[in-house]
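Q: Got a minute? One more chain.
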Amino acid sequence: MREWTIKGLSQEANVSLGYTHAVITSLISAGYATRGSSYRIRVVDPIRLIRRWAAYHDYAAINTFLRYHTFERDVDTFLSRLSRLDEAEYALTVLSGAHLIAPYVRPTTIHFYISDQTDPKTVAELLDLRPVESGGNVSVVRPYDAGVFYARQTVDGLSVVNSVQLYVDLFNYPARGSEAAEKILETLANQWYSATRV
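A: Always. Here it is, folded:
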């Protein structure tokens, strides 16, 4: 597991040194992180830490949703349309992200974050979406924090949030989100376990 300095974490997360120090102090006090002999910080149990984060994270409550309808019924065909967008402008999440990372539940709606610089009207035009008052089968999501775009991954040419963000978004998401979240967690655990054996 990688070790960090306070300054390195601050720069990586693009937050102040004071805030980083306060968070690390809390994580160490709670037993989620420790300092090594070189005074570097290391997460003790990443699975336990992200489970804790996920328990308090409410994707549906903290983000802003713009609802649309697409007449395209095939999920994969619709996802292929996202290539019309610049990868820097969006990132798939919840079941549509999980569909690409660890397929388990086939999504009936598509959710993707867009950056503050991205015009939702342009996105709707490029993807041939119709705005709706409620419901809909496509949600264009204005994130609560730009950190959702940190360490995005590209899968089959599509931009997806990183797997940790995907897990926490799915954890409290209805329509079998918790089941899909556990599949993502299995993938993460396997990656971390493999990394510690190298």
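A: The two ends are 10 Å apart (CA to CA).
Q: Perfect, thanks.
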